[in-house]
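ok so i was messing around last nite and threw this chain in just to see what happens. nothing serious, just curious
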Amino acid sequence: MKDKIIAKASDMFLKLGFKSITMDDIAGEMCISKKTIYKYFCNKEVLIQESTALVHKQVHKLIESVVAEKYNAIHENFKIKEMFKELFNSNTDSSPIYQLKKHYPEIYQRVLEQEINQCEHWFRENIKKGIAEGLYRENLDIETYVKFYYILIFHINENTSSEIEAQRIELEALEYHTRAMATKAGIIELEKNLLNTTK
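result:
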């Protein structure tokens, strides 16, 4: 039952927002009593912690599944962005990450600390892959570009309340990041992916 509550809560938090969803909402959606939820979670904050931990695992499974497909480095980034868009497909225009930072800053900080190493590892491996494929320039300072992109993405999500706007700016950031690293072959691949994204 505990795992079912976490799964349902995670889905509702992402779709409707961390602030707006109550324990009553979750109980009603699951057709269980609120008392049953409190049997496993002493308050909403604990449930949010468990839910964000589950989302963290889901995010990294998604990334691993895309990487396993062995797309080229640029297409890989676009596929991951597409899967993130589906995962964070909200029924409201309120960004769940922005809400988490605003209303539950301590939980957000813990999530952020968990994400730093994972995201930096993924960005680093993608850049190495792109260099090997001839899509990114050989003389890149990899660690600097990892930090640039990490700062860009997290700044967007932390400070953009609208999920639609966050998605739009993230696409701009991905284009910016890729153009900064790309060879001529990389630019061609980037333009192809941008064309497919806007369709």
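not much to say yet. The mean pLDDT is 90.
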